[in-house]
Amino acid sequence: MRDSVLWRKKSHIIMMLADRLEIDEERALNIFYSTKTYQLLSDPNSGIQLMSDEYILENILNEIIDQ
């Protein structure tokens, strides 16, 4: 996936995370970067980049709940 497309995808997911948790974008960014889902998004071999933003957001939310 092209870097610019992936960057926009990550940005959209961070904004969705902020909205869902009713927090500011900076805090959402910190949460996003601390997740295993972020690591998977950064690995081109994982395939998660092809999933919908909503699916990825749900993965992040599940990770946060499980912590």
Order of helices and strands: HHHH
- Number of helices, where a helix is a run of at least 4 consecutive DSSP H or I residues: 4
Low-confidence stretches: none
Let me know the average pLDDT.
94
Instruction: Give the biggest beta sheet.
Output: none
Helix and strand composition category: mainly alpha
**What is the 3D form?**
globular
Percent of residues in beta strands?
A: under 5%
Q: What is the first-to-last residue Cα distance?
A: 30 Å
Q: C-alpha Rg, in Å?
A: 11 Å
* Beta strand count: 0
Helix content: over 70%
Describe this structure in words.
- The chain is an all-alpha fold.
- The chain has 4 helices and no strands.
- The longest helix is centred in the N-terminal third of the chain and has 19 residues, at 3-21.
Layout of helices and strands, plus pairs?
Blueprint: H1 3-21, H2 25-33, H3 36-42, H4 53-66
Helix pairs in contact: 1-2, 1-4
Q: What's a quick, concise take on this entry?
A:
With 67 residues, this protein is mainly α. The chain is built from four helices and no strands. It has helices at residues 3-21, 25-33, 36-42, 53-66.
Q: Which terms would index this structure?
A:
single chain, 67 residues, mainly alpha, 4 helices, 73% helix, globular
